[in-house]
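Service request form, structural biology core

Requester: graduate student, group of Dr. S.
Request type: structure prediction, single chain
Budget code: on file
Notes: please return the result as C-alpha cells.

Sequence provided:
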Amino acid sequence: MAGAYDDEVAATAAYRQADFATALRLIRPLADQGDALAEVDLAGLYSDGHGVAKDAAAATGWYRKAAEQDFAPAEYFLAHAVEPRAPLVPAGSEASRLLHRAAEQGFAPAEFELGMFSVLAMLTPDKPMPEADKWLQKASDAGYAPAEALLGMKHAIHVGLPQEQAEALRLLRLGADQGDMTAEEGLGALYAREHGVPPDFQESFRWYLKAAEQGDATAQRQLSTIYAKGLGVVKDPIQSRMWFEIAQLQIAGKDAARERALMASLYDINASKLSAADIAEAKREAAEWSAQHPPKPKIPEETWLAPTSVAAAGAAALAQKPDAAPAAKACTHEEQVQARLAKQNGYTGGPNCD
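Core staff response, request fulfilled:
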C-alpha cells in the first residue's frame, strides 16, 4: 500500500511539472491493478491528451472502472464524460444518478453542481428548490470555494435566504481567500454598493482586480468604469480603455458582436475622450496583458487527482462526525490514503485501517 501511495505522490509531482510521460509510467501499473485513484488519473491523461493520444472512449472506460468501485470523484467525472451538459440533465439519467451518488458520499464538486439549480430560484422566487439549496449548503459547509461564492451571492441579493449581509460577506471572503474569481468579483460588487455593507471603493477595486487578473470579464468591465470615474483609484483614462479592450477580447459566441456594441456604448458613457495615440497605447497594453494571461481551460474540475484529493471526497462527512470511530477493517488502498490524510488533518471519523 505504501508503495502505491508513494508512486501516486511521485506521479502527481511529475504531472505538476508537465512530465506526463513519467506520470503515465507511474500511474498505469496502479490502474491496471484496480487502484481507483490511479484509474481516475489515467482517465484524465486520456481525456486531456497528456502523455497519450487524446481518447475520450478510453477516458470514459477508465472513469467507469473506478466508478464501479463507488469512488466518488470517478462518478463525478464519469457523469461529465457521458453527458457533457451535466448537471443540466434529466432526473433519472445516468449522469444525474452518478452526480447524486458522488454527492451522497460528500464529494463537494458534485454537491455544488446539484446545488447550482438553486440559482433558478433567483428567476422563479415563487418556486423554491429546497433540494438544490441543501446540496449547495453542504458544499459550502465543506469549504468548497465555488459553493461559498454562490451562496454568498444569494445572501447578498436577498434571494431565497434571509437578508444577511454579514453572512454574504463571510461566505464571499471564504471563497475569495481560496482564489475563487466569482467570489472575488462578488466582493468587488458588495463593497461598491449599498448592500448593508458600507461602500469601500478601495476594497472594491482590490477584489475586482483580483478577479480581473484571473480572467473574469465582469470584473474587467468594472475596472474600466472604476478607472474612468476614479472610484477608489486615481482617474486614468488610458487604464480605463485598456481594461475595456481586455474585456472586449473575452466576448465570444454568436451574440459577440451585439455584446461588444453594447459594451462599447457603456464605455462611451463613462470614458473621457482619448487621443488616437492614447487609444493605441491602451490597446498595446491590453494586448500585452492578454498575452501574459492566457485563458484558463474550462473543465468541470481538475482532471488529475492528487492523493490528498481522496480525503476531500469524504471530508464533509468526517467533519460532521468528529468523534466517530469506525471499527478496524481491511481497507482498500483509497481508504488507506483517506484514513492517513484524515488523521493528519485532525479528523477522527475516517476509516479505521490500523
